[in-house]
Amino acid sequence: MAKRIKLFIVSILCCSLTGIIGATFWFWITPVGVTNYVNKITFQMALESPETLTYLGMIDNTILDFHSDELDDYTKEKEEITLRQLVKARSGLNEYGPKELSGQELLTWEITAWFLDNQIDQLKFSHDKYRINQISGVTVDLPQFLTDTHAVVDKRSAERYLLRLKEFARVLSEVRVRVIDDAAHGVIPPDFIVKKTLSGLRAFISDGAKMNPLVTTFERRLSGLSSVTENEKNKFSDSALDIVEQKILPEYKSIIDIIKGFAENTNHHAGIWRIPNGETIYKLKLQSSTTTDINAESIHELGLTEVLRINIEMEQLLIKLGHTEGTVAERVKKLMKAPDQLFSNTDQGRREMINYLESLDEVLMAQAPQFFSTIPPQPLEIIRVPVYAQDSSPGGYYQSPALDGSRPGRFYINQKDTADNPRWTLPTFMYHEAAPGHHFQLSASQLIEGVPLLRKLSPFGAYTEGWALYAERIAKTDMGMYENYPLGDLGRLQSEMFRAVRLVVDSGMHAKRWSREKAITYMIENTGMTEAEVTREIERYVVWPGQATSYKIGQLRILELRAVAENRLKDKFDLKHFHDFVLMNGGMPLDILSKQFDRWMESTSVNSYPRHSLPALQRKASVYD
Q: What is the C-alpha separation between 448 and 580, in angstroms, rounded?
């Protein structure tokens, strides 16, 4: 600690004393303006989270790196401190607006107020989640954070990795205490989640410390460091092995023993209503996920309507393709198994799948300038979900580039079984996760100038997932990516159906008390997905109530705003300007997006979005890891 403080002081002394005093009052003690205030509270929150600082990737392995040998504090006491800090930050925000604010400053105030209010609401209940489950939580998320996000680039970063391994054992101990406390307050996962959670925990420790990914991936990264001697590499490897064997695996075993005990004290109910305050908790989760006040009943009815509409479109397309026998789902399921559409479930087949995804990206990027004024220059990598994580991971996901450019945007695809992703489904998958979906939106937000960091991070699921689902649609309606590929268009409709069904089953389980089995049956009957795929999805919604509703709610809101703009502006409507309006204001709650849209429409100029810069970064070919 003393060394860290000394390094920090040395870096500060590089500035003039006068400048320090002035900048300190201007930004830190008494911030001037709402933008500086929001940056101040954002940095304060980030400084409290070593993991967040590493995800941001701005100061790791620099002279200012005081954090990359630590992990977050997961204790209940820390959660209570965070709540008090959020309440104080929200109160302080009122001193900066909203009166007399306008333009981007008013938008910053509104977004920040909503964000802080939501964070405070989410901490109202200390026992509102299944803290360790089959798809998330520290036993799933932190191993991948350590192996994929913590950079090992030299001797010092390797030493910090070892310190973080020790920290991981501490975190597991803290969360184990929280899980016991949750159970004492009536929060125990349903039996099928207990079973899947135990399976994942056991799999992680099954091969022993020597073959554990926390050791093997570290050894692989060390092997590429020319600045570290072989003797040092061997010592680092031995230390990692010892920490995993002596500290981490015993914690996993202790957690397994606790979860095993839950099997005798739980039930089979799927919805969050089953825990104390469950109905109120679900209402808050929906507000947080959709960033609107739409209720569960309305979400359910909207889902049913969308399922019917999409089913009709799929029926028409299937007939055009010559597939007329059976229900829509049965015909889709048959196409999912068509041999000519499957990549072999081998390393070569996985590589071929990655190559195909890369080719799709190249074709779309060639056309993107016709539809977007801002083309994010950050590079994109398409890589496989780590083998050790594939059992607990979704089919794919996107990770934003580091703010300093040290890490590209990454599209992770789960290749445990390549049959899960036939060729005709991959274009839509690519357009959602990469360009023009998440990669465009999350990378573009980092380019915005003159707004606080919070607005560059886009912490609003309905906006980010809504944009990605909207991106799937414009790949067809505007960009013509399926013009000569109707089977690929079926993949788009299947994806949209999947998101519409989510509205029905999520609200069904958590508000209407549907069983897990009823939700599984409904999704199978309407999507054509396999029972194994659907089961994983339904069990994900069980442990993440409300989250799955964000996609379709967000897409429909963006489409609604576009339709209004097209109707009012008629031949003056410019799609590039509309896309810049949505993307270059950064992420925000949907209700605030609607309010900002009204301002945009009333403005005499559609160029009211903030300025953005295009740093000198070159797109590079995607890689397979």
A: 11
Residue type, 247: K
The vertex-603 CA angle with 599 and 605, nearest 5°, equals: 135
Give, in order, the Cα–Cα distances in Å from 16 to each of 19, 31, 48, 466, 604.
5, 20, 27, 47, 45
Separation CA 593–CA 585 (nearest Å): 9
What phi and psi values does residue 251 have, to the nearest 5 degrees?
-65, -40
Helix (H) or strand (E) holding 412: strand 409-413
What is the widest separation between alpha-carbon atoms in the chain?
79
Residue 443, C-beta contacts closer than 8 angstroms, at least 6 positions apart: 376, 377, 378, 400, 401, 409
In sequence order, which residues have a C-beta less than 8 Å from that of residue 612 and are 6 or more positions away? 374, 444, 447, 448, 449, 584
User: 14 pLDDT exceeds 60?
Assistant: no
Query: How do beta strands 409-413 and 380-384 pair?
Result: parallel
**Residue (of 139, 145, 137, 138) closest to 161 by Cα position:** 145
Query: Is residue 29 exposed (0-12), middle (13-18) or buried (19+ Cβ within 10 Å)?
Result: exposed
> How far is it, in rounded angstroms, from Cα 160 to Cα 171?
16
Sequence-ordered alpha helix ranges (H) in 244-346: 249-262, 278-290, 296-320, 328-336
How far, in Å, CA of 584 to CA of 464, rounded? 13
The angle at the Cα of 525, spanning 522 to 531, to the nearest 5 degrees, equals 85
pTM above 0.70, yes or no: yes
Say if CB 37 and CB 130 are below 8 A apart: no
Please classify residue 349 by burial: count the beta carbons closer than 10 Å to its beta carbon, then call 0-12 exposed, 13-18 middle and 19+ buried: middle
Name the amino acid, one letter, at 463. Answer: Y
pLDDT digit string, tens, across residues 476-503: 999 999 999 999 999 999 999 999 999 9
Beta bridge partners of 398: 411
Rounded to an integer, the average pLDDT of 569-583 is 94
**Beta carbons within 8 Å of 36's beta carbon, 6+ residues apart:** 26, 27, 452
Alpha helices in 368-485 (DSSP H): 426-433, 438-445, 453-457, 461-477
Phi-psi region of 322 (alpha: psi -120 to 50; beta: other; left: phi over 0): left
Give the type of residue at 580: D
pLDDT at 523 over 60: yes
The C-alpha atoms of residue 335 and residue 323 are separated, in whole angstroms, by 9
* Sheet containing 396-399: order of strands: 380-384, 409-413, 396-399
| Range scoring the smallest mean pLDDT among 106-115, 152-161, 295-304, 529-538 | 529-538
- In angstroms, the Cα distances linking 482 to 21, 490, 500, 557 are 59, 9, 21, 24
Residue 167: CB atoms within 10 Å: 21
Tally of CB atoms within 10 A around 200: 18
